[in-house]
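hey team, just a heads up i'm posting the complex here instead of the shared drive bc the drive is being weird again. everything in one block, sequence lines first with there labels, then the predicted structure for the whole assembly after. its two chains so it's a bit long, scroll down
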Amino acid sequence: MSAAATATPLLAVRGLRAAYGKIEALKGIDIEINAGEIVALIGANGAGKSTLMMTIFGKPRARAGRIEFDGHDITGVPTHEIARLRIAQSPEGRRIFPRMSVAENLQMGADATDCSEAERAAGLERVYTLFPRLKERIAQRGGTLSGGEQQMLAIGRALMSRPRLLMLDEPSLGLAPLIARQIFDAIRTLNRQDGLTVLIVEQNANHALKLAHRGYVMVNGLITLAGTGAELLQRPEIRAAYLEGGRRG
Amino acid sequence: MSANPVRPSPAPQTSGAAFIFKKALISAGVALVLFSLMIGVRTEAGPQGGLIYWTRFGDLAALVATVFGGSIIVELLRQWWGPVDSERIVPKPVQAAMSFAGRWLAPALLVFAFLIPVIFYNQRYILDLSILVLTYVMLGWGLNVVVGLAGLLDLGYVAFYAVGAYSYALLATNFGLSFWVCLPLAGILAAFWGVLLGFPVLRLRGDYLAIVTLAFGEIIRLVIINWQSLTGGPNGVSGIPRPTLFGIPLDNSDDGLAAKLGIDFSPTHRIIFLFYLILALALVTNWVTIRLRRLPIGRAWEALREDEVACRALGINVTTTKLTAFATGAMFGGFAGAFFATRQGFISPESFTFQESALVLAIVVLGGMGSQLGVALAAVTMIGGFELFRGLDQYRMLFFGMAMVVLMIWRPRGLIGHRAPTVFLERNQAISSDLVKEGHG
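-- predicted structure starts here --
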């Protein structure tokens, strides 16, 4: 799957607004993700990155604007039906099922989709080749895994639905740098080998922008900058805000 | 994040006799203060209406001595047992014996259950008690779907038991429908009420959910009491037909089962029939639950118990998942209710008080939430034990309270607290090795 094959973007968000009660979290967002791309969304705490991702996934509901996936309007579609369109989400804080085994956690990822047994098995095999650590821990309870392994499990679980778009919320949160790099490497592998389209929300701007083809910078519910990953990394305001001065807040 | 942090196991603290003695003395002191008024002085209204009192220092001394001795024993036990959370090194032979017992306990219990009517044929009391225990096993398994698997705390489970019982009683007495027609109807009606309860509580969790379900249970009971024209109010419904063996009644008549088989009639036949009926119903409950746990819907219930947000992120329809859990649990409650009605022949709202809900919930929690065997063992212990200690009169509740406290200290997750995974290693490996051959090459 090449980026040029589809004229329309895989995901297009236009003028999206969302709010928690009276507090407006998204104030008119426009982003596009083409098939086969890794897109990073960076910004400080409270900028609305996670909200944008959750709004794309149907909860909270959009107040205004339009979300199109593969040319279809999905703005008002309930969450569980969005997942059926093969958009997968790995939520913030991993949120694996602690008392269920690694294998069961992975099965859960495929349960809500209507994929066949063979597709399920192929998905499992893909996850295990990507994260051999999970295969070693197959019968272990999710809660007994280390943080990095839990993150691998969360990504693996999302992959089990054979997504066309994978949305990752802060996959490096709370991980040691070495483990975080492993996670980023896995995402790159998925993109290059399987042509998976990825939207990644990160505070770790350096890592995320190096990984991504393109990036968006979000401040206070608005997109303030957009460009390729390399371009954004060169921008002085990005370096000042997210890289050299240390990550704020 | 990890649920079971591996701790360095602390060196066994074998504190000296002085420590134990001191602790026991403190306990005895507390007991003395508490009991000196509660036990030591007895007051009563005298013949002239004035207050008379006398002292019972003997009893007081006995109690304080018991506390002193008990405290020493508890402390010794605790040292022998080690801290509650620590990993215990169990000797190999004991481990082997335990795993052997673990593997064979359930089949052994099942075989024993099948043989009960044979062994205790002439002991009506034991047969009746077994039927009672099995009813609670079934109720426990039914509630286990809602509380143990889906993690929805339901304090009004007795409502579905009542719906099932009244469905059968009213359908049978008013329309003359047979037990076998009414049984599925009772289940369906109870499931319907389960969905009705489910809708308003979809957004609630934990204690809020518990309060609403508690109220729901009371509402059903109050409706039954007050809807006199339909339910007979507090007088209940009597003359509920006994179950038949596919149309053949189990009575003394000419076309009864005994006459057809050409054997002498005995009232025990009906008891034994009821026994096998409830055993079959309970086993169906168990079988369905075990099957469901291996299907996506059962897995979704368990995932829901673990993390609702993650379930949503995986595209699981939380609404239908919760409603099916309520409906399935309620349906089994309804079956049990229909059985209860046909066994008793008479039902009244008094049988469906909150206490029943609490008892069934206690069985599920003590058994270990989600464990089928644990729930069965807890039902046997609770209901059977209740009868066994009838001789202790008023101390029975005291004894049970203590037993429950002890259990919760030593096995805080219930009798059988571990959760057996439903996806097995062998199967996965088989699948993956198959794919290595055909797949990505």
